[in-house]
Amino acid sequence: MCTLASSEFSHEAVKTHIETVINALKTERDVSVRQRAADLLYAMCDRSNAKQIVAEMLSYLETADYSIREEMVLKVAILAEKYAVDYSWYVDTILNLIRIAGDYVSEEVWYRVIQIVINRDDVQGYAAKTVFEALQAPACHENMVKVGGYILGEFGNLIAGDPRSSPLVQFNLLHSKFHLCSVPTRALLLSAYIKFINLFPETKSTIQEVLRCDSQIRNSDVELQQRAVEYLKLSSIASTDVLATVLEEMPPFPERESSILAKLKKKKGPGAVSVNELEDAKREGGELNGGGERADTSAMAASNASTPSPSADLLGLRPAPAVGSAPPSTGSLLVDVFSEGSAAPSAGVNDDGFLRDLEQPPETSDTLLAEGPGDSDSAPPPAVSEEPAPPLPEAEELLNKFVCKNNGVLFENQLLQIGIKSEYRQNLGRMYLFYGNKTSVQFVSFSTTVSCPGELPTHILSLNQCSHQLGVRCSINWPLSRWKCWPRHCVAVCMSWDQLNLQTKTVEPLIEGGAQVQQVVNIECLTDFVDAPLLNIKFRYGGALQNLTLKLPVTINKFFQPTEMLSQEFFQRWKQLSQPQQEAQKIFKAGHGIDTEVVKAKLLGLGTALLENVDPNPENFVCAGVIQTKAQQVGCLLRLEPNAQAQMYRLTLRSSKDTVSKRLCELLSEQF
Q1: What would the pLDDT profile of 466-482 be if each residue is shown by its tens digit?
Q2: What pTM, to 2 d.p., does this model score?
Q3: C-alpha separations of 246 from 344, 430, 551 in Å
């Protein structure tokens, strides 16, 4: 039956007997028959019945024979990953798996759920909320604590707005499990604590007290002692900006073959996965890790047939591919860009069983700084000397798409795709630009320039200046305690004008067909500004010069700090900002209809706090925030009044600086 279920000609016929197989799994006395039933369920699973089969397997796991539990866990994890369309279902399934059979959940399984959560922006908030709720159980398996510590350390800020999961509540919940855990789990939790100090400065004193106690800094285990001492010192002497750099969010992992499949393949006897199943899962793996957006992995494999495959499991079971390259793809480059073009080397596993990203120095260049022209073994192609082209006609429209979001595709044509992923904290920002070559031909003499409309003082920093001004990246090997400073192998360009400081890091002058390269832009907002920086890209394709200029999506609202306040306080401040020049107002037609949920999402994406029960009219939207610049902080209040009948909006902005009110009004009115 398993053989028939694996055949495309008889698979549908075998599926009609699913109830009989489930009944055998539950009622047969002979353990070998029950194991065969589990194998058959695994073989007959597809997208149409995946949720039913996974639910039945989870139910059976609670009473399953100990001899087959580990294999059952692996099969449930594989099916949940292979056929997941709703990622919240996948997260729920794996957490239930840990709850039901935690002792049999291998490292590969809980590593994998972390990797997928990190790679999927749309599930991070849900995962943080779900794991927070799971940790509240009186009896919580240690693997659940590991997953909870990692996810809350990375994404706890996504649920911190709820008083029930405030920063201190999250920390106290994790720390209540600390003394019941093994040394490796305690080490991971200590790394989560230092991440909390970066995410939630208000927890700093509480966490420092924990790190300072004798049971930590004089711990008999050297690893725990070292972490406690180093984290305590780091949190004491490092500035907020340095902490934000050292403890920044983990970059996406490269998408590769799941190591859970490799582990199941190693298992001998009945139920071992076949080579055909592995290849099938390998082809379909892209559907989970990106759904319809992922590149066609079969085409990718075909194009790489003549070269050593970079495919490997995410846990470092095989050597990782060279940094800065990616396999060719016939599908959307953006997701490949976001997974392969990460800000750190791919993860591996150290002796303690923890993920690592920077345990060994990279063999080529630093992941944040591509190898400079002077470091290449062979001379690069001649530089393109033509003047930058004027901004594209659609540059302003492309800019407006990023006012209320930080990630996405900035530009795409038949040759090139440019993806963006950015993050902001107070008056500082960091933007990752991903340049994807959609063709099979090399881009040569590839260069980028960031400039400001008008006068722009620019200078090239020497290597020492670059290290000093940019700050050599000292990256916490999350969740390890050691960090190392890699030497810079390229120059950086520092651009400064009255409103912004930008520091860009050079990119490779050559991009292979189907590959992507990454560029990092560090941003400092000195004071409020109107014009966005310009990004010029020049390269040669088939000998012809390609020269295009876009507006870099850096707008004043990116430096918003959300501010919560009650109704009385809001209207008191509203009246204080009553001078005519402090207010900007615009009445405009709704461009896409009036959808309450869409409006809320846009206002939150703007960077403000959405205040509930403040305006007497419940249909109106009220927001508050503070623009953080180096020179000053500008308080901003916003009211958006929709008229569903007339399909019109009235937008009113008040701030302590007239130019800010006017610019925010211009930006936001284009979003609806």
Answers
A1: 333 333 333 333 333 33
A2: 0.45
A3: 12, 13, 29
